[in-house]
Write a structure and sequence with these properties.
By secondary structure, the chain is an alpha+beta fold. The protein folds into 2 domains: about 120 residues, 60s Ribosomal Protein L30, Chain: A (2-Layer Sandwich), CATH 3.30.1330.10; about 170 residues, PurM-like C-terminal domain (Phosphoribosyl-aminoimidazole Synthetase, Chain A, domain 2), CATH 3.90.650. It is built from 11 helices and 13 strands. The chain has a 7-stranded mixed β-sheet with strand order 8-10-7-11-9-12-13, with helices on both faces. It has a 6-stranded mixed β-sheet with strand order 1-2-3-6-4-5.
Length: about 325
């Protein structure tokens, strides 16, 4: 199989069809586009989400923590903490492990959560450090927001900028090449996009505006996120590509390496569906979070992308664009 997420058809056929719900306390389990499990314990709702990250330029801890916590926030949960599993190649130095743990603790401090435990080992099964974070959060009945909750004829909002995570990763890993064309400050600005990959703040605000669905975008980029949201909600969508915000650094980096920015990993960017799109965009902007209405959900199942007035159909997500140049990261 190709690097990255497995195709939706394989996920349905070889993963989801093999599973069954075995406990009545499990309110929401695995499904296409859904990133959190929801479990009820004595009238209390607990939510779980797991995400991996492979080390690149010292960012595995940052990415894994935020990916897991973003999933919780996008589901309406209040994150409590994370469990962390770290797999390291045998040549890993102790100071690298110490740096990684410092990085993880720093991000948890910023988010107001705790490291609850985990597992650490060296293994010959990996050639880079791999971090897997399982986020745990608390929710309330009636306030859970699912990617599958979108209704027809509602606004689709996107926060921040497309492909921030991918741009930052590439700018860190391929900085030398980029500096042959761009200034040192430009490359640094591209790298710094990784400092803005939390969606906790916008998720909290969105919960106050009749939001029917949220989905934080990661692997597969904006196109992948839109596809997963539509699949989970069983709705169609019509999206104006020209309305999707994007940093100039992303445009330049993707042109330099011949990548499609709409298919590039985009942690920190969230899709929100609500009938009150303009009100929510205003609230987000007032809170310092860039946001834009990029389209609407539709009653039929068609997934249409409009670019420069021309309509085309959104295709199922394939391997993330970063794998073309970052070799499995």
């Amino acid at each position: 199989m190709k690097l990255g997420k497995i195709p939706e058809s394989v996920l349905k056929r070889s993963v989801l069809k093999q599973l069954k719900k075995g406990n009545e306390q499990v309110l929401e389990g695995p499904a296409v586009g859904e990133d959190c499990a929801v479990v009820e314990f004595n009238d209390e709702i607990i939510m779980f989400s797991s995400e991996p990250a492979t080390d690149v330029s010292g960012q595995a801890g940052v990415r894994a923590v935020h990916a897991a916590v973003n999933n919780l926030a996008a589901s309406g949960a209040a994150p409590v903490g994370i469990m962390v599993t770290i797999l390291m190649p045998a040549d890993t130095r102790e100071k690298d492990l110490k740096r990684l743990m410092h990085e993880i603790q720093r991000e948890c401090d910023r988010l107001g959560i705790s490291v609850l435990g985990g597992h650490t080992e060296t293994t010959d099964a990996v050639n880079r450090i791999v971090v897997s974070a399982t986020g745990i959060g608390r929710g309330e009945k009636g306030q859970i927001i699912r990617a599958g909750g979108a209704r027809p004829n509602e606004d689709i909002i996107m926060t921040k900028y497309a492909a921030m995570e991918g741009t930052g990763l590439i700018a860190r890993e391929r900085a030398e090449e980029l500096r042959t064309r761009y200034s040192k400050d430009f490359v640094q600005n591209a790298q710094d996009l990784l400092c803005h990959i939390s969606v906790m703040k916008e998720a909290e605000i969105a919960g106050e505006y009749d939001t029917s669905a949220m989905h934080d975008i990661r692997e597969g980029g904006v196109y992948g996120g839109l596809w997963e949201l539509a699949a989970a909600s069983q709705v169609g969508l019509k999206v104006n590509l020209d309305a999707i915000p994007m940093k100039q650094e992303t445009v330049e980096v993707c042109e330099f390496f011949d990548l499609n920015p709409y298919k590039l990993t985009s942690s920190g960017c969230m899709l929100i569906v609500t009938p009150r799109g303009r009100d929510l965009v205003q609230a987000l902007c007032e809170a310092g979070i860039p946001a834009a209405i990029i389209g609407k959900t539709t009653k039929d199942q068609s997934r249409i992308i409009i670019r420069e007035g021309e309509e085309g159909f959104l295709e199922p997500p394939k391997s993330d664009e970063r794998f073309k140049i970052l070799n499995g990261i």
